[in-house]
Amino acid sequence: MNTLEPAVHACDKDGLLLRRNAVAMGIDDKALARLVRAKFLVRLRQGIYCDRSVFIAADERERHRLLCAGVIHLYDSHVALSHASACIVQGGPAYGLDLRAVHLTHLKGGGRQRSRIRHHTGECRVGDLRRLDGHWVTTPARSVADTVCTDGVVAGLVQANHFLHCRLMVKDELAETIARSSNWPGSLRQHPVLLLADERIESVGESRTSHLVFSQGLPMPEPQFEIFDPFSGTTYRVDFAWPEHRVIVEFDGMEKYHRYRRPGETIEQAVMREKAREDRIRELTGWTVIRITWRDLSFPEHTAQRIRAALNRGSLGTLGRAAGL
Q1: Global pTM?
Q2: Does residue 1 carry a pLDDT above 50?
Q3: What is the largest CA-CA distance in the chain?
Q4: 129 CB contacts (<8 Å, ≥6 apart)?
Q5: How many CB atoms lie within 10 A of CB 138?
């Protein structure tokens, strides 16, 4: 066996091949090893292989989804994908998640640790589970609550805002789940997530900006603040605003330009259109506009100083106008 054809036909629609299915089709362990050495297949873990072309084309998030799809087929219905894995298969972002292993929660007892599988035990209520592609997966609310405990506040907040914005959960569901998980290891991290979670926040960068503002002790802004242009009838939305301080913060990430790029528009054209939009907002309001990049998020103290200085200037200006100065 030295051609790609047998491996391609044996793989499922996702490009996955389980060892047990391969053996049933007459592809033994030696043949599987040859296909791996010949770079036709990639071994994801014991018993799970993937079409190499599919694997190479996949990003980190998609590779984890493929691993989840393979692992869940190795188990019966007594397990559910959970934690970061449940977030990924339900469309959550990869930011901040440890995707080296698939997370499984056992509904009937525990399981021994295996390569690239992390087993969890814990009570799952009926409302904590849903069916997805014929298998159990924890609901977005339960997945977020679990993920905060294992991956931290920022990673959990990113997932919470994603699922809220996509209307795959409501905040009351998250609050109820957190309320009954006070004895979980790492559960103290859940309270900042519940406080900051907001369905108006649209991206990873905005979620991280919100956390930066909170962690640095700044007053919390209004997300997705609207500014109306009476001349054109256009309503502009900005990521965050402190109206009483006359300050706006916009997160400037490439994902925004890709998300709002118009058909046939280049990135350069989108950037210029965004600049014109920002100039118009300044003309309409006279407010300070601060742009934050991914790099700025890596230096939270410095970035907070920039925002705090602008807030202070805005407050002084407001007082001066009120006094007629």
Answers
A1: 0.88
A2: no
A3: 88
A4: 80, 136, 137, 138, 139, 142
A5: 28
Q: Indicate the residue type of 134.
A: G
Specify whether the CB–CB gap between 35 and 10 falls below 8 A.
no
- Rounded to an integer, what distance in angstroms lies between the CA atom of residue 313 and that of residue 325? 15
Q: Directed axis angle between helix 300-322 and helix 204-215, to 10°? A: 70
- At 36-83, the pLDDT tens digits run 999 999 999 999 999 999 999 999 999 999 999 999 999 878 899 999
- State the residue for tokens 């980190």: 60
pLDDT > 80? residue 28: yes
Residue 102 Ramachandran class (φ > 0 left, ψ -120 to 50 alpha, else beta):
beta
Instruction: Scan for tokens 């090893």, then name that residue.
Output: 33
Task: Look at the block and give the residue holding tokens 């500014």.
Answer: 227
* CA distances for 249 relative to 215, 245, 269, angstroms: 16, 12, 22
The first and second tokens of residue 48, run together, are: 């799970």
Please give the mean pLDDT across all residues of the chain: 90
According to DSSP, residue 114 is labeled B
Q: Tell which residue, 44, 49, 43, 79, has the closest CA to residue 64.
A: 44
Amino acid at 157: L
* Number of residues written out for the chain: 325
Dump pLDDT digits (tens) for 148-181: 999 999 999 999 999 999 999 999 999 999 999 8
- For 239, counting Cβ atoms within 10 Å of its Cβ (0-12 exposed, 13-18 middle, 19+ buried), the class is buried
